[in-house]
Amino acid sequence: MEGFGGFIKSQPARKASVASFLLEIGTEELPADFAAQVLAQLEPMVRRDLSEQRLACEGLSCTSTPRRIAVCIDGLAPSASDLQEERKGPPAAQAFQDGVPTKAALGFAQRCGLQPEELEIRETPKGPFVFASVLEKGRQASDLLAELIPGWIAALQGRRFMRWGAGERRFSRPIRWLVALLDEQVVELSLEGSDPPVQSGRTSFGHRLVAAEVSIPAASAYGDCLASAGVMVNRQQRRQLIADAIAAGASKRDARADLPDELLEELTDLVERPSLIEGSIDDGSLDLPAEVLSTVMRSHQRYVPLYRRSAEVDPLSLQARGCLLPQFLCIANGLDGAEDSIRRGNERVLKARLADAAFFLDADRAVASEQRRAQLSRVTFAEGLGSLLDRCERLEWLAQTLGRCLALDAAAQADACRGAHLCKHDLVSQMVGEFPELQGLMG
Hints:
Number of strands: 20
CATH topology of the largest domain: Alpha-Beta Plaits
Structural class: alpha+beta
Strand content: 15-25%
Radius of gyration: 32 Å
Number of helices: 13
């Protein structure tokens, strides 16, 4: 696909007093759900620390791909602003005796970095006190960033963090490289506790199948450099590109794409170079219920099912043939020219997965729902609350009691009790055991 725009665009000429900053944390392939966790933590953390250090900036944004997390700051001040601080010291009577500074005054002046004669005596509601006017000069941005970056990385939290190799640093996946650039200058730092140790530089890595090392000359060139190496680093642009491609693919078939937001977010965080692939579903698989096919494709294979635009989906229908098209869409992360190979591979995997689903469905259909009831006693509902069988019996009692309280007729009460009796039987079916997302529907 074309149009992999950069994350930091080239900026028009600006005042020399501000700079662009880039931090890229390069890793092994990250879990798809990690991006949302880390981006929600990283941006507010960076904003907070810059504010606390009095380091001004014009814009800050964070992005990610499966192999990198990036912080981009625009209009960063070259140094923190100075801080003029008024400090209150001991009472004047204790600080000076006959105009001569005492130990209290000398100690206070030393703590403030001043000479005793630079102290001032001011009246307060509690009497005269000694004051010191202290000017704290702002530190250079490069020095502050070198101290802040390791703390930002160490503070990130997520599921399944672990140590890698012999290092003590915990992270979702091993950190392999670190780019830290203030305009063209490398912000020198080292990530201790990594195995091997990671030293900051200007070398990044492109798409795993397209390019190896990428030298980034300046922070403002980040997006363009990675685009030339096959990486669309801007997550929002990548998400929009995927959504548009799937919408176009569905429109081509006059279909409705089954693309919930959760799947779109996951697809965005699975690829660095998205391209649309259309595959075919084996005709025999359309004899499965539509919900089964859709669940297998969405939840297990990350494919996008295509529904006939004019068809009404009946969740209780035992066949998908009338509502689901025999095609699906998927997002690939591979090389240009490999579309046919990718499509065949995905079709082969889906065929095997749907064959498993058909086997489980046939096995479940061979057993009456009532025959599964005994198995519920072997499944714990919750500690102290008994088994699933105990829960079913409580639900039956509730249905019966509420039916009497509401003065339902005998047929309605019988239906409610029968529903409560059967409602958890599918939890011990083979289909729900393999595809838990279908619980409550397969029964």
